[in-house]
Write a structure and sequence with these properties.
This protein has 130 residues and is mostly helical. The protein contains six helices and no strands. The chain has a single domain, classed as Tetratricopeptide repeat domain (Serine Threonine Protein Phosphatase 5, Tetratricopeptide repeat), CATH 1.25.40.
């Protein structure tokens, strides 16, 4: 929130190392997700995507549905920034399906908003996705 991205990255990498060391898989997934957020904020989209994919994999492994939904949403955001619109749409749809499954109405609203914005901007920007 303060824009001190390098310091934030250092703290998150430390948190990640500790979570790995103590075997706290949920914390490890959270650290990867938060690290992805920092990387995305500074435009390092490929590295952010890698972090989000690691978070997703761990969440799937431990059965953390809410974490899976957040990971899919984060991946959608990153892929939208990379102009990979069809893949972004797929990730947003995956997040939406999970949020419906777990009854997360607030998350559903956000996912519908992400899909609407994606579809609006890609069509108005000259690219059409289905």
């Amino acid at each position: 929130m303060l824009g001190e991205y390098q310091e934030a990255k250092t703290y998150l990498e430390t948190a990640l190392a500790i979570n790995v060391e103590i075997g706290f898989r949920k914390g490890e997934a959270s650290s990867h997700g938060n690290l992805g957020n920092v990387l995305e904020s500074v435009g390092e989209y490929q590295q952010a995507q890698d972090s989000y994919e690691k978070a997703l994999s761990i969440c799937e492994e431990i059965g953390d549905k809410r974490g899976e939904a957040f990971s899919y949403e984060n991946l959608g955001n990153t892929l939208q920034s990379l102009r990979e619109y069809q893949n972004a749409k797929t990730y947003y749809e995956n997040a939406l399906a999970i949020r419906k499954e777990i009854g997360d109405r607030k998350g559903e609203g956000g996912d519908y908003g992400n899909l609407g914005t994606l579809l609006y901007w890609t069509v108005s920007g000259g690219e059409r996705i289905s």
